Amino acid sequence: MLGEQNLDHDGAPAEPRHPPVIDKPVLIAEPLLPDLKDLIPLLEGIWERKYVTNHGPLHEQLEAALADHLGVKTAMLFNNATIGLIAALKLFDLPPGSEVITTPMTFAATAHAISWNGLTPVFADILPGTMTLDPAAVEKAITSRTSAILGVHVYGTLCDVDAFARIGASRDIRIIYDAAHAFGATRSGVPVSQFGDASIFSFHATKLFNTLEGGLVATPRESDRKKIYYLRNFGIKNEEEVVEIGINGKMNEVQAAIGLLNLRLVAAEKAKRRRLRNRYIEILGDLDGIQLPAEQPEVENSEQYFPIVIDETRFGRTRDQIYDALKARKVFSRKYFYPICTDFEPYRHLKIVSTRAIPYAEEVKMRVLCLPFHSNVSEDAVSVIHDVMHARP
Amino acid sequence: MLGEQNLDHDGAPAEPRHPPVIDKPVLIAEPLLPDLKDLIPLLEGIWERKYVTNHGPLHEQLEAALADHLGVKTAMLFNNATIGLIAALKLFDLPPGSEVITTPMTFAATAHAISWNGLTPVFADILPGTMTLDPAAVEKAITSRTSAILGVHVYGTLCDVDAFARIGASRDIRIIYDAAHAFGATRSGVPVSQFGDASIFSFHATKLFNTLEGGLVATPRESDRKKIYYLRNFGIKNEEEVVEIGINGKMNEVQAAIGLLNLRLVAAEKAKRRRLRNRYIEILGDLDGIQLPAEQPEVENSEQYFPIVIDETRFGRTRDQIYDALKARKVFSRKYFYPICTDFEPYRHLKIVSTRAIPYAEEVKMRVLCLPFHSNVSEDAVSVIHDVMHARP
After folding, report:
1. pLDDT by residue (tens digit) across A206-221?
2. This prediction's pTM
3. Is the CB of B336 inside 8 Å of chain A's CB atoms?
4. Could you say which of 3.40.640.10, 3.30.1330.10, 3.30.300.30, 3.40.50.1450 is the CATH number of the domain covering B36-259?
5. What ipTM was predicted for this assembly?
6. pLDDT tens digits, residue range A143-197?
7. Chain B closest CA to A35's CA: distance in Å?
8. Does A47 contact B at CB distance below 8 Å?
9. Do B108 and A242 touch (CB under 8 A)?
10. Which residues 6+ apart lie within 8 Å of B124 measured at CB?
């Protein structure tokens, strides 16, 4: 079953080395970068125009291309997703101090963006399986001070968008999605950014589509464009008016140039990752106590991460043991997300609202592991993972 | 007196055209950019390492070079000065809602950074002459809720740092400087970042030293380094601890590469601007009703801007008339700062605390004009400015 073909070249399958030896560390992620030869002419244009930031022509071009690629009315580039998320939360004039319900199973920036807006994060539990925010826990967490729900399409797995749409519609609650992991995801052909009031994508180096650092605020309403534009650029409406307490969220032209070129590479990278996903499912699918990424049949996956959940009682070894065993063979997985937001000093005093006695998030944080997931994960690395996972303890 | 030499070449002085005609618009600022031929090898290194952000080697190199160049213990790069200023204000754990006294004669970001921290901006008047925060007005504005003074070295002109040091020392008040305009300024050889508790520089494209977008938080204490590092990177202390409500303020490697190369160009650009400054003084010095930039004999100027203040009653024409007359001849000056922060919708309800009946800031905002100030301002452009300023109304 193993080693039938090498993923990293197209010729005849190479004879795999047994046991495979990794020379160069295999990282959890690797940035997709365009050919420098393609970038240089774009840089020459920027240098000639001397128009290097403040919504230059490449910035405008990338923004239009992304609106098109993601199938969304309003798509506004940011210098990173955190600043985008901070601005997006500001978009809705949520009452100061009001509560925003979110998941602890996310990167710290999700909670921080709430705090920077003078809002109060409230953590609700996640669902087994998808590891996304549990609508029942959210219902339980809602108070008269709740102004928004900030769901996270964690690992690219979609939140229960229908449940949150119902919750949002029945009360005056905004639904916002941290879509940092969900670039290009769709459900039954509907782009992920069509769900909720706003979706924030990350273009950090570790993401499928990257601009080194970067982000995007997408909303299904053309009418949001103006205010996000102001918020991104210090609240400046025109030469004489500043109408919002804005921020500097501008992406420069060089990063926009890299984005324009990377956008052409996304489809091929995604196809390679899809093959890697299938290889992982092939080598791990028969293991007792290993939960593979949630299947969402109507969802076109963003191919961002490959998380597994290791039930140590059934599997016989813990997540940390697997992490260490892989690391010893130069394959770097990631305990992601561990710790979770409610473990962090600024949020440690907050409980996770759950329908269970012990929140599922507390359980899964000890069990979840993301495997290396990018096109340079060789078949040798897959072999190493196979060997480590199938070794008898 | 005019046209004795052309600033833009080194040969024999060209015969000036009379009246000079500007073919290409002369802008208020132009970004200093390194030769692309020098940048490409650095990009090749980044592409080979695939280490594109998160404190990469060029980032570390630039940070060290800037600490050295600016003569400061702690120098931390940011993706822009606004995010730097937001993080710097967070550094001191100022009580929520406490008051930060600042100048209205500044870019909106100064006030916004206070607001984003959940602090209350209090605007105090500026001094005639230097146009920096007036210590007497600041004293008048201090209440029991004052936690910090945020001075701005506006146009590169230094604040009365001695007065603010005294105020800070006599009370529990932090002194922070928005040094966006003051890159490389010194007083009696002492770097500007040695004054106060923190100084924030801007590396935006319009600044003498630029990284397209960028900024730096500098403090005179080595011990601040760690906390600023955490604040810049989501509050992450290590793989398992998040200790602050941080932000994403990271600069990527490509911008760091541009910064490393631009740093080599700063001295020559500064020398050219110094000559331009002297030319402006030459052609404007004899005009009644024109106030030239404040002289601070002990200060090594940052050569960032050249603001003049036009007293229309003595000069016979208004600032706006001069602006329009220059524009008609393709020379773009800037009404900077006009409007001022207290004119902006988020701060309009706030009064400027002043020792005068009508704050000086209200007066000068109608009179101040920044002339184009960079090495590509030709002698023809200087001639146009001379002609416009000397024309009889």
Report:
1. 999 999 999 999 999 9
2. 0.94
3. no
4. 3.40.640.10
5. 0.94
6. 999 999 999 999 999 999 999 999 999 998 999 999 999 999 999 999 999 999 9
7. 9
8. yes
9. yes
10. B101, B102, B103, B133, B134, B137, B138, B140, B141, B352, B353, B354
